[in-house]
Write a structure and sequence with these properties.
By secondary structure, the chain is mainly α. 69% of the residues lie in helices and 4% in strands. The protein has nine helices and three strands. It has a three-stranded antiparallel beta sheet. Strand 2 and strand 3 form a beta hairpin. Helix 1 packs across helix 2, helix 4 runs parallel beside helix 8 and helix 6 packs parallel to helix 8. The two termini are 18 Å apart.
Length: 235
């Protein structure tokens, strides 16, 4: 098992089931972002105790969080061995992108139809935030904004089934980009610009433009993925 650094203790609510849910959510978010950010390394094995120490929470909320991470294919449990962080896999990534393309098209159309005015205003703000992070060359900020972008797009479709399905794709996709983006200097500006275009199209209720920009984003991600075949991930 690997020794992992201890994070600062999170603030959690103190009463009953609400506190338990809060701790599970904190464990999930902490572990998920550590996996995506490559702090918990692909292909490595960790014990439940390792992960509980990493997020400074008990083993029960970590165990509950792991159920969600297994569903997203970010971890696999190995009986009597521990928790295995799934490796980065080019073929798997291409398969995910193939399925994600159709779902992104549907998401774009439904968000154009269903987004509320406050959601549309937030999309325009996030579109500018995407472009600004690219102008500064700040990949960390872009990833933070991108998480909000994906959450907002899914929420704006107002379709819980679609939202839950899209969640299965984003973690692995973001981790893949984190592992390789520094090897392709233009990837940050291209990704930021395409995300901004999707948001602007949805905000202005233009489904044709939103679908077109979504297809361009998936074309870019597929091309990006194929270029990594002969590269070693930066972790």
């Amino acid at each position: 098992m690997k020794n992992v650094p201890r994070r600062n203790p999170p603030q959690v609510k103190s009463e009953g089931a609400e506190a338990a849910r809060s701790q599970t959510d904190l464990a999930y978010e902490g572990l998920r972002e550590a996996i995506i950010g490559l702090k918990l390394r692909p292909g490595e094995m960790y014990s439940e105790s390792d992960l509980a120490a990493f997020v400074n929470l008990g083993r029960t909320p970590v165990r509950e969080a792991l159920h969600r991470l297994i569903r997203e294919e970010l971890v696999v449990t190995r009986k009597n061995r521990g928790i295995f962080i799934t490796p980065i896999d080019v073929i798997r990534q291409l398969q995910l992108l193939d399925v994600r393309r159709a779902l992104e098209q549907l998401l774009a159309v439904r968000a154009c139809e269903q987004a509320t005015e406050p959601e549309r205003r937030e999309m325009l703000e996030l579109a500018e935030a995407c472009e600004e992070s690219a102008r500064r060359g700040d990949a960390t900020e872009f990833l933070r904004v991108n998480r909000r972008v994906q959450d907002l797009k899914a929420r704006a479709a107002h379709n819980e089934t679609l939202t839950n399905t899209m969640d299965l794709f984003y973690g692995l996709s973001r981790r893949f980009w984190v592992a390789y983006h520094s090897r392709f200097p233009d990837s940050l500006s291209t990704a930021a610009h395409l995300h901004a275009r999707i948001l602007q199209a949805i905000a202005t209720s233009d489904p044709q433009a939103a679908v077109g920009a979504s297809n361009e984003l998936l074309d870019f991600l597929e091309s990006f993925t194929k270029k990594t075949v002969d590269l070693r991930a930066a972790y």
